[in-house]
């Protein structure tokens, strides 16, 4: 359990100083010694050797992004992977991170240790150095963790540079994240770096809020995304959850969010089949799907059905703060 | 008021998308266009031209670091200044920042706009670029903001490199932060960069948890800080608050925390009076005080009274999560 009734297991019992030294111990080899790691006013980073420096931040809050059904280790791992997915979306390579914890005094020390097991294993796995952070107190029963991650990209691929006639692709399968997929995902770092090197690739982002909403953001101005709904790669989890929700599996694939797959576009004049063959040779195990094309269209709505040419408005995706 | 009863003033009414575009508008010139500012998966930073890159993170939570008595603008300004003080403590120059907001659905849009006025004015004042961030939802009645700031330092001054016989100095006056000083402070960036260039300066940190506690951290191993208590520069606010608290003004100066002044050491073999004259010429308006010296001592306690040579144990400073 994330919150404890046992005073001796609470971080209030531990106190700030012991908590910080425990965190350093829990992180072990993924936090270098000060000033390159925890312990000074700032962390001193290794010079960014090649490429452009990247910076991103993302948070996880108990009750919002995870709940009691999720293991502490999975929660810690996900915090790192969410941020890695943003670095991947630029075609980048991750480097150093700082972690701010906002903990109620009743957060369980045992739970937090497991959380850091996830942070540590994932950071080591993806070569992320945890170089510093901050611990501060919030209300009883509350826990948030905010990770800020640096990285580099030789030639960052942006999300707003797609053009009219570009072909639209997604990696993997979409939907059903609520069935645990949003913990099991692997950030597409290697694939994204490969894509960043392909001259056809015009734009890229990671899918976090659902394909419907993310496509509206990704769509160039004065264009709409003409989508072949039959082509959408629907995840098995989306089919399973559809049986429970009585909604269509396609709707889950379009709206659930937290797919952490790549959405990218390739130049309309390029040779699609050659590009797809190169992909298949490089990543035989990761499904790649052409889902549509950007067409000239100055209406507000950014999604069209490629068969009927009609506006698709039923796929809003996830939005924070919006009442149901 | 930070939280609103009026639905139309709440960020829940606004929704995430409008909130983000409002934030971009509120930040105005202190956030560059994407991908160098908000709007892509990561922010692309300008290459770190000279010196070593620095990274630091610090948070502000309603009810912990500020309350209803503090204006939204002051709260926003303080978030930036706290982090600037950490960059200063390394002798660095600030560069880019990302901001993670954790907001209850009842946070007032009007309040948040004023908060960003403080963020914006302070960022512009100190040449900080707000390049990105994250907004996510937490419980009703809760608000935290986490800022992560990058910077560079030609030759970072560390906090654990003081040596035996080093003379100990503090800038400015200490104590009484509760009387509003912790909003009015100016991060000592210029002074710290000057100190980083002086060959005598061995170590530096900023005073955040109270001189008593911070000195224990600053003290080299197998040493103690022999402190001249009569020399401690006590702020007027500490004298004022002492009348209300019935504690000694000195105790407030040693323990209150949030002074955001510099604590540094200079080599014991250097010419103190020459160093002090150079300081006075460079910063005629900022008081500099020699408060003691590091002496060999292998006891656990790190604070000694220079007159009696006895252990000073009554100045613990501020610690999160500790029960009163």
List the helices and strands and how they pair.
Two copies of one chain form a homodimer.
Chain A: H1 11-14, H2 16-27, E1 43-44, E2 52-61, H3 72-88, E3 93-103, H4 109-125, E4 129-137, E5 143-153, E6 167-171, H5 181-184, H6 189-197, E7 201-206, H7 211-218, E8 223-227, H8 236-245, H9 249-255, E9 262-266, H10 272-282, E10 288-296, E11 303-305
Parallel strand pairs in A: 3-4, 8-11
Antiparallel strand pairs in A: 2-5, 3-5, 6-9, 6-10, 7-9, 8-10
Helix pairs in contact in A: 2-4, 3-4, 3-6, 8-9
Task: Indicate how many domains the architecture of chain A comprises.
Answer: 2
CATH topology tier name of the largest domain in chain A: 60s Ribosomal Protein L30, Chain: A
- Cα Rg of chain A: 21 Å
CATH architecture assignment of the largest domain in chain A: 2-Layer Sandwich
**N/C terminus separation of chain A:** 29 Å
Of all protein chain pairs, which has the greatest interface, and how many residues does each chain bring to it?
A-B, 70 and 70 residues
Sheet of most strands of chain A: 6 strands, mixed
Strand content of chain A is 15-25%
Assembly form of the protein:
homodimer
SS element count, helices of chain A: 10
Give the name of the CATH superfamily of the largest domain in chain A: PurM-like, N-terminal domain
CATH class of the largest domain in chain A: Alpha Beta
> Mean pLDDT of chain A, as a whole number?
93
